[in-house]
Structure prediction request, 124 residues.
Amino acid sequence: MKDRLSKLSILVVRYKYDLREDNDLVELSKDEAMLKIWSTIPGLGIKFALANPEENEYGGVYLFENEGALEAFLASPLLKEWGEHPDVSDLTFKKYQALPDLTLATVKPGYVSGDVIKDLAPMA
Prediction:
């Protein structure tokens, strides 16, 4: 686990989005074709979608298996095309590396197991 964390590359993306009645970002995020694209990005382990509607700010935290996968994503047209979308403005991104020892030391016991998706799902 620690070795995987030391290789983890993290991308934080922020942008403004012009929300209107005919342009709901939450509805757009349910588009099956778009979801398939995200699930097939090589080396992308998980994307946390972020929303701060009060400040009209959205984005994501992307966890890539390694720096090569993150760099390949940045070289792909996806981020560039999203930044050129007519309803998107002020797109910024930063790259980070995980600090494995500190990360492991701060995980609440029992908070996540081997199935992070199941662990983070809303409780019924």
In short: The domain at 2-96 is CATH 3.30.70.100 (Alpha-Beta Plaits).
